[in-house]
From TrEMBL:
<protein>
    <submittedName>
        <fullName>Porin</fullName>
    </submittedName>
</protein>
<feature type="signal peptide">
    <location>
        <begin position="1"/>
        <end position="19"/>
    </location>
</feature>
<keyword id="KW-0732">Signal</keyword>
Length: 456
């Protein structure tokens, strides 16, 4: 912890010394394809590096050694997004990169042991998004209605604002992950292949999609009688899913050129939105009772509100977001996840190991309810070109899953240090997570991280 705090201080000092760089990105890396600028291609590149100090779950070992804590550095995201407006009506987009590379894992498929293709090395890039879309009704001045249709591997997954969050401008260091409830099971890193429609009617925005989820085939554990069965992801001959998100924007109207929802505008917009969404996939999970397979729909519902409001005349701002999820994956469904988890189970551990598993795994999503709220305040600064802007924030999560006898609460607290807005920022954050050693017994463990983010 002391070493990480020292590193954070040195980084902040160094950043302040180099803060004289340009803060005017305009349209970023944009290349006009005609003389009018209506046809163009744009590239967006970003990287997020994490320094962490983490308390490990009981029963953890790292690279063959027992571990109760860990310090590490990892590459949370390294991405490239390219999109081209071929005409006023037609756009294509691709988005590729890597995620979650640590010193023990996250490398290319098959990398293991020691050597040039050892643990965690040379991660394989993959496509996150690849779609095209056509504007049937253009969003023109004086017209209230617009409509675009598209298809491919896409991010228009409905449900909530944070389900379609941009990873470039989070208020906190990262998303809470349960906002992507299908992550890497029936989707590809929060995306599915299908068709979508998007548009606006005045201050009302809509997004709907019809998709073919990726196949899942986990085998349910058989139980002798009903009531104790546990649903797992097994979609058989996968049926099509449906998703939607509907939002009313009371003040400034947000852009919907791309699906990625902004997490913090830093006072550059006056935004207050309320929204609601859904996701439904028929026969997407299975359980087994007395050797009889039962199929269950996945039905996910959400309602949320987002506020980003300038404060005063000195460029201050308040940002807040709250969302309530009602998840039904089938009976007693529970999924444990941990971001960039470097721990594995210790087979020789003597004691009560965490039910979720080793490392930083925690109950992340399941049948039940989740309430998540975050808020931050951009400290006012009247300087023409401030060296660093400061934005403290906090977040609170309450989870109540059917599979656990006891609900859990956890929090995040931290601050953003903006050297050049979201283009160059440092985030510090302390987070807690619930650790269950029995269905009705949980405690909290913590993680401190420093994130370095750049994007162009």
């Amino acid at each position: 912890m002391k070493r990480l705090l020292t590193i954070a201080g040195l980084l902040l000092f160094s950043a302040a010394g180099f803060a004289q760089g340009s803060t005017e990105y305009n349209s970023g890396l944009k290349f006009n394809l005609d003389s009018t600028g209506n046809k163009y291609m744009r590239a967006i590149i970003w990287d997020q590096i994490w320094f962490r100090s983490t308390e490990m779950n009981p029963g953890t070992m790292i690279n063959g050694e027992e571990a109760s804590s860990s310090t590490d550095i990892g590459n949370r995201r390294l991405r490239i997004l390219l999109y081209a407006q071929i005409s006023k009506r037609y756009m294509i987009l691709t988005h590729f990169g890597i995620n979650n590379q640590t010193f023990t894992n996250g490398g290319a498929a098959g990398t293991t042991g020691t050597g040039g293709y050892g643990q965690g090395k040379k991660p394989g890039m993959f496509f996150h998004d690849a779609w095209n879309e056509y504007a049937v009704v253009l969003p023109q001045e004086g017209k209230k209605f617009s409509l675009s249709l598209g298809g491919g591997l896409h991010y228009y997954m409905g449900l909530s604002r944070s389900t379609m969050a941009s990873t470039l401008n989070f208020l906190t260091a990262d998303a809470p992950i349960f906002n992507w409830p299908l992550i890497e099971n029936s989707d590809q890193f929060a995306r599915q292949m299908g068709l979508f429609a998007k548009g606006k009617y005045g201050h009302f925005e809509y997004r709907v999609s019809y998709n073919k989820p990726f196949a899942t085939n986990l085998v349910p554990v058989d139980v002798p009688t009903g009531g104790k069965e546990v649903a797992v992801d097994n979609s058989g001959n996968t049926k099509w899913s449906r998703a939607g998100y509907f939002e009313y924007q009371f003040f400034d109207i947000e852009s919907n050129l791309l699906p990625y929802k902004v997490g913090s505008y830093l006072g550059t917009k006056k935004v207050f939105n309320i929204g609601a969404g859904f996701y439904n996939a028929p026969d997407a999970t299975q359980s087994s009772v007395n050797t009889q397979i039962r199929k269950h729909d996945i039905t996910l519902l959400a309602a949320d509100a987002f506020l980003d409001m300038p404060i005063g005349s000195k460029k201050g701002a308040i940002t807040a977001y709250s969302v309530f999820y009602d998840y039904d994956f089938g009976p007693n469904y529970l999924r444990n996840l941990g971001i960039m988890n470097v721990g594995v189970a210790n087979p020789d551990y003597v004691g009560q190991a965490a039910l979720a598993g080793a490392g930083n795994l925690q109950p992340t999503m399941g049948s039940g309810t989740i309430w998540y709220t975050q808020a931050g305040f951009l400290i006012p600064d009247s300087s023409a070109k401030p060296i660093v802007r400061f934005q403290p924030f906090g977040a609170f999560t309450h989870k109540n899953f059917d599979a656990l006898d006891k609900a859990s609460s956890q929090f995040d607290i931290g601050a953003n240090f903006f050297i050049d807005g979201h283009h160059a920022k440092i985030t510090t954050q302390y987070s807690t997570r619930p650790v269950y050693t029995a269905l009705n017994d949980s405690s909290l463990k913590g993680e401190f991280l420093v994130q370095l983010q750049i994007y162009l």
